[in-house]
Amino acid sequence: MSRSMWSTGPNSNEVKSYIMNKVLDDFNLDYDRPEDRNTVMSTMNTAYKTHRNRMHQYYSLFSTKEEALEHPYPNMKKEEWAPICKLFSTEEFQINPSNKDNAWTSDTAREHFEKMEVLQLQPSLREGHLQKWRSSQKSWDKRVMCVV
């Protein structure tokens, strides 16, 4: 789900074409105009990044990749969730709160990171966050359904 997967992933051209054709059903656009094409592509990229970030936020609620695999993202099959978990467990998605020299950017950043690590190790809090996340997603889905 990285940028490269959006750009060159399996069926990426088919998916983009499908979405762009669906947009044409609802809007009067001319894809020969660079402005129209760039606007649609930019909007699609933003939506993709937002969805990827929500999935990563959900994945981060679990302490291990294996635990995350047992709890697929809502409305997603385990076989669809598995490659996403694999991606999120790569170095690219690991948090590095230090600068290029591997030194903390500030003592405050280090202290906050250490507190966060302690909190993440507490399963009851993690489970509470999972419940809170699920309920926030449900309310978000309801708002989106009302708008559509």
Question: Strands, helices and their partners?
Answer:
Layout (H helix, E strand, L loop, with lengths): L2 H6 L3 H15 L7 H26 L5 H6 L7 H11 L18 H14 L2 H25 L1
Task: Give the gist of this structure.
This protein is 70% helix and 0% strand.
How would you describe this protein?
The protein is mainly alpha-helical and about 150 residues long. The chain has two domains: about 1-95, no CATH class; about 95-148, no CATH class. About 70% of the residues lie in helices and about 0% in strands. It has helices spanning about 5-10, 10-25, 35-60, 65-70, 80-90, 105-120, 125-145. The relative contact order is 0.07. Residues about 145-148 have low confidence and may be disordered.
Total domain units: 2
Mean pLDDT value: 77
Low-confidence stretches are 144-148
- The end-to-end span amounts to 26 Å
Element order, helices and strands? HHHHHHH
Helix content, binned percent = 55-70%
Helix and strand composition category? mainly alpha
Sheet having the most strands: none
The number of distinct helices, counting runs of at least 4 residues, comes to: 7
Give me the Rg, rounded: 19 Å
User: What proportion of the residues form beta strands (DSSP E)?
Assistant: under 5%
- What is the subunit arrangement here? single chain
**Envelope shape:** extended
